[in-house]
């Protein structure tokens, strides 16, 4: 028989075995469906930098009509619940107990020197900046209206791609990328190690199956699971979370396939070092967590130290996040991300070559 035809026959048998084994195992079925959906729901609702409501302490030592009007403007925003205290000490004690997020103080001489003091809880720096900014903007706008002062320049703001500046259209596509990374890396590592633990790997070694055929059978199966997760979670993101999908499916599919090359290669590398499934799981999370942190998923890469920024160039998740977010929000296609596609292909090829050389 033609060697190529014989190899294809063996590969088809291996793929059939892998899919049956994957779908037959209740733990694997659970891992493929439940954790990705659970993570999507949790992060889809919880991942946000917006401060939609905050408890504010008010120390109004002036007690004038002007301060009452300013406080009414703050309360009218619906973002703050005001708690009145007679002294600053009581307000700071409430902040120490975690009952309030910021203190708004008007001094007794506010009429002569109209200065409002805002003290925020800096233990959460992002929330503190958001609360301080929202309070300052509200107070300044109301003060200008009361004084009848027209600003010299009128500014009209408009967001081009995310009109309402919601966090969800930004975070949910990133969640898709991280879920695909976690699922495929862990599945690839665990399926190979599982063969070793159960002793079936030794049985395969005495068959005509080549090492490359064995690894292709493993990778194609997990890649199919990864693409299924991309399709399922993208559908839920659009239908449930109302995330706009402005791009084309070809761009999303191409980026997903190139990214899967890296995640599958990382999973195979883990399997070459791990002896048990527990070791594979620990090694996977040891690698996945830094990749997520250094990808720009939640923390802008430009804000990182220069040395760390150079390190992110080796992170394939960084490029996949750019592709998937632009495909969803900006309507980008293949031509707009040639550099990202090339980097994912380069890193994916390197990971696969290294893993093929390591796996014995």
Explain what this protein looks like in three dimensions.
66% of the residues lie in helices and 6% in strands. By secondary structure, it is α/β, with parallel strands linked by helices. The protein has helices spanning 3-24, 26-46, 65-76, 88-96, 125-147, 168-198, 200-205, 211-239, 249-273, 277-293, 306-312, 316-329, 338-358; strands at residues 54-60, 80-84, 102-106, 116-120. It has two domains: 3-47 and 166-358, no CATH class; 54-147, D-Maltodextrin-Binding Protein, domain 2 (3-Layer(aba) Sandwich).
How large is the count of helical segments?
13
Number of strands: 4
Q: Averaged pLDDT, please?
A: 83
N→C terminal distance? 27 Å
| Contiguous uncertain segments of 5+ residues | none
Beta content: 5-15%
Order of secondary-structure elements: HHEHEHEEHHHHHHHHH
Largest sheet: 4 strands, mixed
- What is the count of distinct domains? 2
Overall SS class: alpha/beta
Q: Based on CA inertia axes, which overall geometry fits?
A: elongated
| Strand order of the biggest β-sheet | 2-1-3-4
* Rg over C-alpha atoms, rounded to the nearest angstrom: 27 Å
Helix proportion range:
55-70%
Features:
single chain; 360 residues; alpha/beta; D-Maltodextrin-Binding Protein, domain 2; 2 domains; 13 helices; 66% helix; 6% strand; elongated
């Amino acid at each position: 028989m033609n060697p190529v035809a014989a190899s294809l026959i063996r590969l088809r048998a291996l793929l059939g075995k892998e899919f049956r084994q994957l779908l037959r195992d209740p733990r694997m079925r659970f891992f493929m469906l439940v954790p990705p959906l659970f993570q999507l729901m949790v992060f889809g609702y919880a991942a946000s930098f917006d401060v939609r409501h905050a408890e504010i302490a008010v120390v109004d030592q002036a007690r004038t009509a002007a301060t009452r009007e300013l406080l009414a403007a703050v309360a009218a925003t619906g973002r703050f619940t005001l708690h009145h205290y007679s002294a600053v000490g009581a307000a700071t004690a409430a902040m120490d107990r975690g009952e309030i997020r910021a203190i708004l103080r008007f001094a007794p001489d506010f009429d002569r020197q109209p200065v409002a003091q805002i003290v925020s809880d800096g233990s959460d720096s992002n929330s503190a900046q958001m609360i301080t900014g929202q309070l300052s903007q509200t107070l300044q706008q109301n003060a200008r209206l009361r004084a009848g002062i027209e600003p010299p320049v009128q500014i009209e703001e408009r967001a081009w791609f995310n009109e309402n500046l919601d966090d969800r259209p930004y975070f949910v596509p990133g969640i898709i990328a991280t879920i695909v990374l976690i699922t495929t890396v862990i599945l690839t590592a665990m399926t190979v190690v599982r063969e070793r633990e159960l002793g079936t790997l030794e049985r395969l070694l005495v068959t005509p199956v080549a090492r490359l055929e064995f690894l292709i059978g493993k990778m194609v199966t997990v890649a199919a699971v990864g693409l299924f997760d991309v399709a399922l979670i993208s559908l839920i993101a659009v239908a449930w979370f109302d995330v706009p999908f402005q791009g084309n499916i070809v761009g999303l599919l191409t980026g997903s396939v190139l990214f899967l090359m890296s995640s599958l290669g990382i999973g195979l590398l883990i399997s070459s070092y791990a002896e048990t499934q527990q070791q594979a799981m620990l090694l996977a999370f040891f690698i996945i967590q830094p990749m997520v942190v250094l990808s720009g998923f939640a923390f802008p890469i430009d804000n990182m130290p220069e040395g760390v920024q150079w390190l992110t160039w080796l992170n394939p998740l960084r490029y996949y996040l750019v592709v998937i977010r632009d495909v969803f929000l900006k309507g980008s296609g293949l031509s707009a991300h040639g550099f990202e596609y090339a980097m994912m292909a380069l890193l994916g090829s390197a990971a696969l070559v290294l893993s093929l050389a390591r796996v014995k």
